[in-house]
Write a structure and sequence with these properties.
Helix content: 10-25%
Strand order of the largest sheet: 1-3-5-10-11-12
Mean pLDDT: 83
Number of helices: 2
Number of strands: 12
Strand content: 25-35%
Low-confidence stretches: 1-23
Shape: globular
Distance between the termini: 30 Å
CATH topology: 60s Ribosomal Protein L30, Chain: A
Radius of gyration: 15 Å
CATH architecture: 2-Layer Sandwich
CATH class: Alpha Beta
Length: 182
């Protein structure tokens, strides 16, 4: 019987822990791990990664400038909170656009890819956090006029996503399934 393919996770020594707000990756060939509620921006050839369950990974990429931003959105609505913009869909997207502009990229040419939003507590019932997060992120991107080029959302398993800031590819690894790139 063949062995199941196990996704590769680099050793912790290769990962750069980032603060709970916004950060910029400046060391080439490092993988930045984006924690819950964080937003990270990086330039080619760097990569940015996060592990998601019901949370949504929102990736914005500007192909000409080759700048990527990844947010690890935890909840749909901030209810007016401004202390942690990456935590909420309605505050993460505007902050991501602001970061793109600060790094010489326009939001009009940015392309979005999203992943996550798993139903971690079953497909039915009151805890549909993943679906609510997905809807809120898509609404925030539409409001900002940003095209969603691809998405890999829903289902009942978490996933790891990695944004390649050279190509704009978003690699997705789900336990027990082949890796895909969107």
């Amino acid at each position: 019987m063949p062995l199941a393919r196990t996704p590769y996770f680099p050793p912790l020594s290769d990962l750069q822990q980032l603060p709970m707000t916004t950060s910029t990756l400046t060391q080439p060939s490092k993988i930045a791990l984006v924690g819950m509620g964080q937003i990270t921006i990086a330039r080619a050839p760097e990569t940015i990664s996060c592990v998601l369950g019901s949370c949504i990974g929102v990736a914005l990429f500007h192909p000409r400038v080759r700048v990527g931003v990844l947010a690890h959105v935890v909840l749909a609505n901030s209810a007016g909170r401004t202390d942690c913009p990456g935590k909420f869909a309605d505050t993460a997207v505007p902050r991501m656009i602001q970061l793109l502009i600060e790094h010489g990229a326009s939001s009009q040419s940015a392309v979005a890819k999203i992943a996550g939003g798993a139903s971690m507590f079953g497909a039915s019932g009151p805890f549909k956090i993943g679906a609510a997060n997905t809807e809120a992120v898509l609404a925030a991107l539409a409001k900002a006029g940003i095209r969603v080029a691809a998405q890999h959302v829903g289902e009942q398993k978490g996933r790891r996503v990695t944004l390649d800031c050279t190509t704009g590819n978003l690699a997705i690894e789900v336990a027990g399934a082949p890796s895909i790139v969107i």
